[in-house]
Amino acid sequence: xxxxxxxxxxxxxxxxxxxxxxxRRFGWSDESDAAAQAHADLRVREAMDRVLAxxxxxxxxxxxxxxxxxxxxxxxxxxxxxxxxxxxxxGYGALCxxxxxxxFADIDAGEQDLSYRHGCLLIIVxxxxxTVALKLAGMExxxxxxxxxxxxxxxxxxxxxHAYTRFVARPRARDARxxxxxxxxxxxxxxxxxxxxxxxxxxxxxxxFRLLAMHRTFDPRDPxxxxxxxxxxxxxxxxxxCFNQHCFRARISPKPWRMGLERLHAPYAAxxxxxxxxxxxxxxxxxxxxxxxSRFASCRFxxxxxxxxxxxxxxxxxxxxxxxxxxDQRLPLA
Length: 334
Fold this sequence. Notes:
This protein is an alpha+beta fold.
């Protein structure tokens, strides 16, 4: 599992005639800031040598916290440790449990946009219609006619959007989600039926289902893990992250926007540094987030599938996971 404590970024520029090449690369370490900087300097120098030799490489690595799927370690604040597991705070503020060998797998339906997608076009068309109607009705000046037409169009569009969402989109989405849930749960149970010696805990999440394997530990690069992910339709980005970072991962606190909060705005920096944790705005956001999160669960336990036993490593992870997720409480999911 690769979740470093210290991060740095190095920048290197090369000019030859009219050609200029500028590269940036991250460095990381569990020892110190200096070690992380030395690693960044080494990586940017190696990248420059490859570029000058004719290889096509990205000029910089993406400044996103959760980029483990791209081969760069997970760059997040380490909040706590429980044995071999690490709890981090991700880029938008939720807590995530990262484990080296206890298997988590999320099967998601995704979140649907229920709003009426042609609102802007509708407002433009209705503004034109109302403006022409007002002119034909005898309004001489164009500007007031356009203003009244726009206001009327906006109000009517809002009503149409509200009605569409309530009476059309939301019922359709609910029906589609119920069908997807039934199909996903049937697929999970069929998978477990073929592996009676396994032990899988099934949880409901806001977007679908989560599985936690209890009967043994897994190497994230084990072909059996890849086969399981394929069979169940696990998100490909998550599967790639597990392979690259030698770990499994589960979000264990709510997404802020599901509780009516804005997401955490991380400091503009390419690297996470310990002093960021003491930023006043960050501490205040976490205080409000924790207060709201106490009223929600991140997932809810559904059932256990299979007849296998439970290994101590998985039991320890399950206790942490269920406690933070409030998986046994009847709370709204977020």
